[in-house]
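hiii, so i know i said id send this last week but things got crazy w the move. better late than never?? heres the sequnce for the chain we talked about at the cafe, plus the structure i predicted for it. fair warning i was half asleep when i ran it
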Amino acid sequence: MRIAVSVAEKEKARGAESPYFQALLAAGATGKEIDLVSVADAARVRAEDYDGVLFAGGEDVDPSFYGEARQHDSVHDHRPRDEFEFSLLDGALARRAPILGICRGVQMINVKFGGTLYQDMNEDAAPQFEHRQTDLGKSRQEATHSVLVTDPESSLGAIVQGACRVNSLHHQAVKRLGRGLKVTAHSEDGFVEAVESAEEYPFLMAVQWHPEEMVNTSTEQREIFVRFVTKCREAQE
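okay and structure toks below
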């Protein structure tokens, strides 16, 4: 089994210390089965070489991909990474490989499916609390708000019974849902927190929070990675 984990360049430099790497180890993958990749690897990385792909957090998606100009100084995009990940996602979807998206990952997937984003939640919407908890001095591992599961029949619904506590490290969010996706969870103040494929697909789950930061303190968050790794092993077979 081989899993590609698409990350920002600085995250790739952390190697085995990356929380994404560690979360997959905690879920039963071995170090040799995990490949941290970035846009710098575009020439060598092909979706068909992997049994699953995890799209991690990082820079904002270029608003031009969802038909908008950059509206706020807080938007920090990286178009080369967008192009690399859109291509990797296309390849993974074509071979029906398991897909897991985290934070930027859910936003990128939503845009690829034709959806849009709030470029800055505080400017474009009316959140009831700060969704980037580090701005409040809280650690990345701390659970700060609840996520409410809206589809108990979903893959997330099989893991989380009703609601769970999560961390929150984002300033953008899903606005208009992409075609072929379904919402499976909302935040307490009504923002999309998780999506999955609305069609029959082996495994496509994307969440707005960072479960990799909570695998050591939450069985539910670790189970997200366990399900993903299990589906990747099934794809290998």
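btw The chain has seven helices and eleven strands. thought thatd interest u
miss u guys!!
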